[in-house]
Predict the structure.
Amino acid sequence: MNLPEISMLNFFNKVLISLDELTSNGNECDKESLISHCKSFVSGGILGDYETIIEQCRYCGLLTIPHLKISITLLGDRFLRANSEKYFEFTNAQKQVMIERVVFNGSWTHYARELFEIFFINLTSEKYECSLNEPRLTKHLLSVVHFFKYLGLLHFNESVITVDDKYSELVYHMMADRKAVSEQQLEKMLMENRKLGAKAEKVVVKFEQKRLLKLGKKYQADLVKKISHVDTNAGYDILSFDGITDDTSYNRFIEVKATIGKKIYFYWTSNERNIAKKKKMSYWIYMLRNFKEDKPFKSIPIMIQNPDVVVPDRAFLSMEVNKYIITEIGDVKLKEGKIDELKWFELE
């Protein structure tokens, strides 16, 4: 069944309110009685096609019609309780019920899957996005976009469609098993993150120099080097030292990740992970959360040593197969490292 017209949605309330009144003693009612009751009061001079509206309500799981007798479902009761004032229009609470229980876990799920296949994750803003100029955004999918926008699942920002932050995790779990990100999408994601990453790399170079100086390794501090601009295939951005010995052979290979958001979230390429497998304990990811370009040194790095082993082992992190998008999905457990006033975090 197709998505209902947006103008039809308000009639869902009329049908559910009428059904609740007719079955207040817990009994069922027949369709004709329900339609007759709905037609007995008119809002704004508008009459609805109640045969179609009732069928849409049944399709969404709000009511059931066994043997032509209609009764409200548990979902229908929850939907009705989200409109305690019995308004004709959808309430925000009702929209949320429909998003959570019908869009992501019900009869409209296939529309959501079809649409979100063409969305990608903006690594800078941590939002699922799609351009209004996306060639795969067909007339059919555009109607789905406007329908989901009415529900509050999507927002328009100039020529970009974004998923509401409240529902990002639901989109993530819905699409976790989809095919790998295309090369075109990946390049776009990486380009958007490149400017932020370049500033974050400068911060990490300064951080490493300070850390080594505090360990009494001035000569090593002078040798800390950013290489991302000269060797893009190295699999890491910065060459540094553990600072345990005076050896001037590089033994800390640092990949820098940054996000403007509060959660651990970054894209880890296949090449970076392959290098991490080879370097093992010598490979580090320095993650900068809450990274602000105008206050870059305010962000305290989270250090992840041997991430190829550590990241899959942490229940509070998720790593998508084939895409290597690392996402915080639970309460992150961190331990603080400190030399004087210089601070950092490590995963527990």
